[in-house]
């Protein structure tokens, strides 16, 4: 569970709700007409921008903003180093029986065990990486569209409410409801865009980049194992995927463990 997403969205909702409750009756902020116009209108306009498949997938992808299982870069590097050592001792065929956390990496190891060429492995893993990237990108685009359309639908609702208000200036009893629609639709649009759609879209873009980076790391590692690279060389290659501060700590720890630099 991603606590940052959960705490951020819930915190914003609690603060807005508290300001509503402390200021006046919450019922004042509930307007079925405004909600229907903004929520329903936003859904239909965004649907018009994408295919039904992309639209449905976006809501499934939204769960990744709250729960996303991906091993840390360091954990994955450690796992790959062990796999490299094992393959050098027992051969590539042993990788077929090894359990790993990622289905993507598991496919790469299976191709190694099956004797695929390095070119074929690189091509197939790169193609799957690209397709995964496109699917994840679609989810981010849909929620970015929600963030763009919701305020616009809120503005349309405001204009509708103002027209209704001006058309009924001779009937004071209708001015209040029309003004409520005019103001609340803007509020609804802003809340949907800034408290829901935009944060989820940004988090999905972040997830997409994280997964793409991890998949590239796995591609590099699988190809290095195929080329029978020394595990120490592989470790240095994959360390480039770590943040600079993490690499510095690892180098300091290695230097402390081997102060002579490997000289006898």
TrEMBL record:
Span of the secretion signal? none
Write down the Pfam families for this protein, in alphabetical order.
MotA_ExbB (PF01618)
Question: What sections of the protein cross the membrane?
Answer: 28-50, 142-163, 175-197
PROSITE patterns (UniProt xref)? MOTA (PS01307)
Q: Which InterPro entries match?
A: Flag_MotA_CS, MotA-like, MotA_ExbB_proton_chnl
- PANTHER family in the record: CHEMOTAXIS PROTEIN MOTA, MOTILITY PROTEIN A
Would you tell me the protein name for this molecule?
A: Flagellar motor protein PomA
Give the gene that encodes this protein. Answer: pomA
């Amino acid at each position: 569970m991603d606590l940052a997403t959960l705490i951020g969205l819930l915190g914003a909702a609690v603060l807005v709700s508290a300001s509503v409750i402390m200021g006046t009756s919450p019922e004042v902020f509930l307007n079925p007409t405004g909600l229907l116009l903004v929520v329903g209108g936003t859904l239909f306009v965004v649907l018009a921008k994408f295919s039904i498949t992309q639209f449905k997938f976006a809501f499934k992808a939204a769960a990744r903003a709250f729960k996303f299982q991906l091993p840390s870069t360091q954990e994955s590097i450690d796992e790959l180093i062990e796999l490299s050592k094992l393959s050098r001792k027992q051969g590539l065929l042993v990788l077929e029986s090894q359990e790993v956390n990622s289905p993507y990496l598991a496919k790469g190891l299976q191709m190694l065990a099956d004797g695929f060429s390095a070119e074929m492995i690189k091509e197939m893993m790169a193609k799957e990486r690209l397709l995964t990237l496109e699917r994840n990108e679609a989810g981010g685009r849909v929620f970015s569209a929600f963030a763009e359309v919701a305020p616009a639908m809120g503005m349309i609702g405001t204009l509708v409410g103002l027209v209704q208000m001006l058309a009924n200036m001779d009937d004071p009893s209708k001015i209040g409801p029309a003004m409520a629609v005019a103001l609340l639709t803007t509020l609804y649009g802003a809340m949907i865009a800034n408290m829901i759609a935009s944060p989820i879209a940004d988090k999905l873009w972040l997830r997409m980049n994280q997964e793409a980076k991890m998949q590239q790391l796995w591609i590099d590692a699988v190809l290095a194992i195929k080329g029978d690279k020394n595990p120490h060389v592989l470790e240095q290659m994959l360390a480039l995927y770590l943040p600079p501060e993490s690499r510095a700590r690892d180098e300091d720890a290695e230097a402390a463990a081997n102060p002579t630099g490997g000289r006898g």
